[in-house]
Amino acid sequence: MRKIQRKPRHAVLTTLLVVGEGADDRAFITHMKQLFCPRGSGLKVQVEAGDDGSAGNIISNSIRSYRGAAYDRRILLLDADLPPTEAERKRAEQAGYEIILWQPQCLEGALLEALGEPVRAHEASQQLKQRLHPRLAGHHTDPAAYATLFPRTLLESTDNPALLQLRCALLNQPAE
Questions:
Q1: What is the Cβ-side half-sphere exposure of residue 14, based on CA atoms within 13 angstroms?
Q2: Could you tell me which of 38, 104, 51, 100 has the C-alpha nearest to residue 75?
Q3: Mean per-residue pLDDT for 53-65?
Protein backbone atom coordinates (compact mmCIF):
# COMPACT_ATOMS: atom_id res chain seq x y z
CA MET A 1 0.00 0.00 0.00
CA ARG A 2 1.30 3.40 -1.01
CA LYS A 3 1.44 6.24 1.48
CA ILE A 4 -0.25 9.42 0.42
CA GLN A 5 2.06 12.36 0.76
CA ARG A 6 0.44 15.61 1.58
CA LYS A 7 1.86 18.95 0.70
CA PRO A 8 2.84 20.98 3.72
CA ARG A 9 0.39 23.69 4.57
CA HIS A 10 1.58 27.22 4.29
CA ALA A 11 0.79 29.45 7.19
CA VAL A 12 -1.01 32.66 6.43
CA LEU A 13 1.47 35.48 6.72
CA THR A 14 0.77 39.00 7.82
CA THR A 15 2.59 41.43 5.57
CA LEU A 16 4.25 44.67 6.60
CA LEU A 17 5.84 47.36 4.45
CA VAL A 18 8.29 49.68 6.22
CA VAL A 19 9.65 52.65 4.26
CA GLY A 20 12.44 54.74 5.74
CA GLU A 21 13.84 57.98 4.37
CA GLY A 22 17.08 56.62 2.96
CA ALA A 23 19.73 53.91 2.93
CA ASP A 24 20.68 54.44 6.59
CA ASP A 25 17.09 53.91 7.66
CA ARG A 26 16.77 50.80 5.49
CA ALA A 27 19.96 49.35 6.99
CA PHE A 28 18.92 49.92 10.61
CA ILE A 29 15.32 48.75 10.06
CA THR A 30 16.69 45.63 8.36
CA HIS A 31 18.91 45.05 11.41
CA MET A 32 15.84 45.27 13.67
CA LYS A 33 13.89 43.01 11.32
CA GLN A 34 16.62 40.36 11.63
CA LEU A 35 16.39 40.54 15.43
CA PHE A 36 12.62 40.66 15.89
CA CYS A 37 11.19 38.92 12.79
CA PRO A 38 12.86 35.56 12.32
CA ARG A 39 11.68 33.24 9.56
CA GLY A 40 8.55 31.44 10.61
CA SER A 41 7.35 34.32 12.79
CA GLY A 42 4.18 34.71 10.73
CA LEU A 43 5.15 38.21 9.61
CA LYS A 44 6.64 38.99 6.22
CA VAL A 45 8.38 42.36 6.28
CA GLN A 46 9.55 44.35 3.27
CA VAL A 47 11.95 47.18 4.09
CA GLU A 48 12.41 49.95 1.53
CA ALA A 49 14.23 53.27 1.38
CA GLY A 50 12.77 56.52 0.15
CA ASP A 51 14.82 58.88 -1.95
CA ASP A 52 16.16 60.94 0.96
CA GLY A 53 13.93 63.80 -0.17
CA SER A 54 11.39 65.76 1.83
CA ALA A 55 8.73 63.99 3.87
CA GLY A 56 6.16 64.99 1.25
CA ASN A 57 8.22 63.44 -1.58
CA ILE A 58 8.74 60.22 0.35
CA ILE A 59 5.01 60.00 1.09
CA SER A 60 4.10 60.64 -2.57
CA ASN A 61 6.67 58.18 -3.90
CA SER A 62 5.61 55.47 -1.42
CA ILE A 63 1.94 55.88 -2.26
CA ARG A 64 2.72 55.70 -5.99
CA SER A 65 5.28 52.87 -5.78
CA TYR A 66 3.29 50.50 -3.55
CA ARG A 67 -0.28 51.39 -4.56
CA GLY A 68 -1.00 47.99 -6.11
CA ALA A 69 0.79 45.92 -3.46
CA ALA A 70 -1.32 44.12 -0.89
CA TYR A 71 0.19 44.81 2.53
CA ASP A 72 -1.70 44.31 5.77
CA ARG A 73 0.15 47.23 7.32
CA ARG A 74 2.25 50.10 5.95
CA ILE A 75 4.63 52.28 7.96
CA LEU A 76 6.65 55.35 7.01
CA LEU A 77 9.60 56.27 9.24
CA LEU A 78 10.41 59.93 8.77
CA ASP A 79 12.75 62.42 10.44
CA ALA A 80 11.14 64.62 13.07
CA ASP A 81 13.34 67.62 12.25
CA LEU A 82 11.42 68.12 8.97
CA PRO A 83 8.09 66.38 9.62
CA PRO A 84 5.28 66.09 7.09
CA THR A 85 2.68 68.82 6.95
CA GLU A 86 -0.82 68.07 8.21
CA ALA A 87 -2.02 67.70 4.59
CA GLU A 88 0.84 65.26 3.79
CA ARG A 89 0.12 63.31 6.96
CA LYS A 90 -3.57 63.07 6.06
CA ARG A 91 -2.75 61.92 2.50
CA ALA A 92 -0.48 59.18 3.88
CA GLU A 93 -3.13 58.01 6.35
CA GLN A 94 -5.78 57.94 3.60
CA ALA A 95 -3.44 55.70 1.59
CA GLY A 96 -3.15 53.34 4.59
CA TYR A 97 0.19 54.44 6.00
CA GLU A 98 1.08 54.93 9.64
CA ILE A 99 3.76 57.54 10.27
CA ILE A 100 6.46 57.13 12.89
CA LEU A 101 8.80 60.06 13.42
CA TRP A 102 12.40 59.36 14.37
CA GLN A 103 12.89 61.37 17.55
CA PRO A 104 14.80 63.29 18.60
CA GLN A 105 15.29 64.78 15.13
CA CYS A 106 16.33 61.73 13.06
CA LEU A 107 17.37 58.06 13.09
CA GLU A 108 20.76 58.90 14.58
CA GLY A 109 19.13 60.96 17.33
CA ALA A 110 16.91 58.02 18.26
CA LEU A 111 19.90 55.66 18.28
CA LEU A 112 22.07 57.98 20.38
CA GLU A 113 19.19 58.35 22.83
CA ALA A 114 18.87 54.55 23.00
CA LEU A 115 22.56 54.46 23.96
CA GLY A 116 21.78 56.84 26.82
CA GLU A 117 23.48 59.82 25.22
CA PRO A 118 21.88 63.25 25.37
CA VAL A 119 20.70 64.78 22.11
CA ARG A 120 20.56 68.53 22.40
CA ALA A 121 17.90 70.54 20.59
CA HIS A 122 20.48 72.69 18.80
CA GLU A 123 22.24 69.68 17.22
CA ALA A 124 21.52 69.23 13.52
CA SER A 125 20.98 65.81 11.98
CA GLN A 126 24.41 66.02 10.33
CA GLN A 127 26.07 66.51 13.74
CA LEU A 128 24.22 63.48 15.10
CA LYS A 129 25.41 61.40 12.14
CA GLN A 130 28.99 62.54 12.84
CA ARG A 131 28.62 61.39 16.45
CA LEU A 132 27.15 57.98 15.63
CA HIS A 133 28.63 56.76 12.34
CA PRO A 134 32.29 56.40 13.45
CA ARG A 135 31.15 54.06 16.25
CA LEU A 136 29.35 51.62 13.94
CA ALA A 137 31.00 48.32 13.03
CA GLY A 138 31.00 49.11 9.32
CA HIS A 139 29.38 51.41 6.78
CA HIS A 140 26.16 53.06 7.98
CA THR A 141 24.21 51.62 5.04
CA ASP A 142 25.07 48.02 6.01
CA PRO A 143 22.63 46.33 8.43
CA ALA A 144 25.49 44.38 10.04
CA ALA A 145 27.16 47.65 11.09
CA TYR A 146 24.46 48.15 13.74
CA ALA A 147 24.66 44.68 15.32
CA THR A 148 27.41 45.31 17.91
CA LEU A 149 26.18 48.68 19.17
CA PHE A 150 22.46 47.81 19.06
CA PRO A 151 21.92 44.22 20.25
CA ARG A 152 18.42 42.90 20.90
CA THR A 153 18.74 43.48 24.68
CA LEU A 154 19.38 47.21 24.18
CA LEU A 155 16.54 47.56 21.66
CA GLU A 156 14.17 45.73 24.03
CA SER A 157 15.04 48.00 26.94
CA THR A 158 14.95 51.39 25.22
CA ASP A 159 12.08 53.76 25.86
CA ASN A 160 12.65 55.81 22.70
CA PRO A 161 9.13 56.18 21.23
CA ALA A 162 10.11 55.57 17.58
CA LEU A 163 12.15 52.47 18.43
CA LEU A 164 9.32 51.16 20.63
CA GLN A 165 6.76 51.63 17.85
CA LEU A 166 9.01 49.97 15.27
CA ARG A 167 9.77 47.06 17.59
CA CYS A 168 6.06 46.48 18.25
CA ALA A 169 5.33 46.57 14.52
CA LEU A 170 8.08 44.02 13.83
CA LEU A 171 6.70 41.79 16.58
CA ASN A 172 3.21 42.21 15.08
CA GLN A 173 1.96 43.70 18.33
CA PRO A 174 -0.01 46.86 19.05
CA ALA A 175 2.12 49.84 20.08
CA GLU A 176 2.97 49.96 23.78
A1: 13
A2: 100
A3: 93
